[in-house]
Predict the structure.
Amino acid sequence: MSNRVAIIGTGSIGVDLMCKAIKSKELDLRFVVGRRSDSPGMREAMLRGVETSSEGIYYLEKHIEEFDIVFDATSANSHAEHDRLFSKHNKFVIDLTPAKIGELCVPVINLELLKGKRNINLITCGGQASLPMAYALKKSCDKILYVEVISSISSDSAGIATRDNLNEYVETTEFALKKFTDAEASKAILNINPALPQVCMQTTLYARCEKVDIEKLKSNVSAIVRQVQEYVPGYNLVLEPLVDSGNVTLAVQVYGNGDYLPEYAGNLDIINSAAMAVAKFKSRLSGYSSKIAVIEEGVA
Ligand SMILES: NC(=O)c1ccc[n+]([C@@H]2O[C@H](COP(=O)([O-])OP(=O)(O)OC[C@H]3O[C@@H](n4cnc5c(N)ncnc54)[C@H](OP(=O)(O)O)[C@@H]3O)[C@@H](O)[C@H]2O)c1
């Protein structure tokens, strides 16, 4: 089993991921690295007894033989640099930034197809929340002409890198929507909401389609929601599909596990749980994967 993992990036995503990796019985967290020894995330890692360094990628290079899988939770630009090193050493990377260098992955849709790929890109939080719904819609109509997804997340869960990467967020989410649904056009919007008390992550999908089979859509949506709940228990359909003359609207809410930020920050969980699913899949190419990956069994 190749289960020794490292995390680069000590912000919202990196720290939540660290909590999940520490709790995991299947993964062995070896390093958490960043670029500031006094960042809150780095202090949290030290408190939890994890080996840390502020030398970032240089530290990982020195210890390249001591981990099998690396999670990149920095930023899209930094990931492009990091991946040059990971590629040189043929290191398996799970990229949580919207850099879009690696193979796009939504575990319930295509985990099984990732065998042999070295760099897996997890798109965006809005992508992980909306793509299962968009995929269920694709399987329930003749064609998607236009698909739009609007996600709302709490301001305190969006670090500086998330804000810096808003353009990449939009571009990567829109690209993935087209890739996984063959839609003719796509649009992604992210609303970083400063309201107090903080809002829970919510994603609304609106689409214009040809020949929607409403009963099939309802059944496909509930099947895929159950499958996502296998790795994100707080993923819930809050607006059943409404279909009116080929226009479809539905919405999901995502509550997290509260590993780092409280439960409202489902945006951290939806992508980090996907990252954990990919890492476990990589470390034991059977078992866990067959439980969550084969959507075709549930979606007709
Ligand atoms: N927050 C979300 O809801 C969310 C969801 C899905 C995906 N993402 C994506 O995940 C990435 C991180 O987002 P975030 O919200 O966690 O941002 P963040 O809180 O700003 O975290 C980024 C962390 O990476 C560190 N970092 C940046 N470049 C680095 C480098 N070259 N070497 C080492 N460390 C480096 C930063 O260090 P400093 O502490 O020194 O700044 C910071 O600790 C972004 O690309 C974002 O688009 C975010």
Q: What stands out?
A: The chain has eleven helices and twelve strands. Confidence is low (pLDDT under 50) at residues 286-297.
